[in-house]
Amino acid sequence: MPRHTVDSPSGRRFDEEQLLDAARGVFHAAGFSAAQITDIARRAGTTKPTLYARLGNKEQIYERVVQREADVFLSWIADAYARGVDLSLTELAEAGMEPLFRFAAERPEGFALVFRGDRTGDHPASLRRHVINAVTEQLAALIERRQYAFGAPLESNAAALAAACVGVAVQVCEHAMEHGSDLDGAWQLAARFVASAFHGLDFDVLVQRGEAPAAGTMPS
Length: 220
Description:
- The chain is mostly helical.
- It is 70% helix and 3% strand.
- It contains ten helices and two strands, in the order E-E-H-H-H-H-H-H-H-H-H-H.
- Helix 4 (58-82) packs across helix 6 (108-115) and helix 4 (58-82) packs parallel to helix 7 (123-145).
- The two termini are 40 Å apart.
């Protein structure tokens, strides 16, 4: 992501990413309603006029912060899935979930704003749905490319399987964050759970229901 600098009325130059980092911290700590532009400016070491001139009003700043965090997370997901094509089933489950837990560990404030924001029915809430849908769609495409690794061609079930995987990952990660649990341990647990679930799928039943073609051999 390119970095931009902005000038304050005093002539001091500020890195835009630093301004957004400061805003992220304030929104996470205070919530959108209680957060004040003055608090963001103070945390960033700049002035209200500088923030208004470069980032806009509080609503616009909030949306820019959440959008940036979502973009970072989605880029990590895209990289992980691009490397997942040739992995084993267990490795794929681990690699596919790693970006979410790394995001929670390295950018906990961003994770909270994207996945647990304090606002509903507005742009950030819609963005959360967009992020979940985007991850699910990418994973579904990866499952289709790796269809025989799951025991059978599963084009008709890829989206549902992807949704199940994403749901498990998000729920386990949020639970770990809420309870202060070890995120690495939570990641490994979620990955093992999903890999075990795939290994345990009864493809003969899917075929009998007309949900999948004849099954291949489930890899170990």
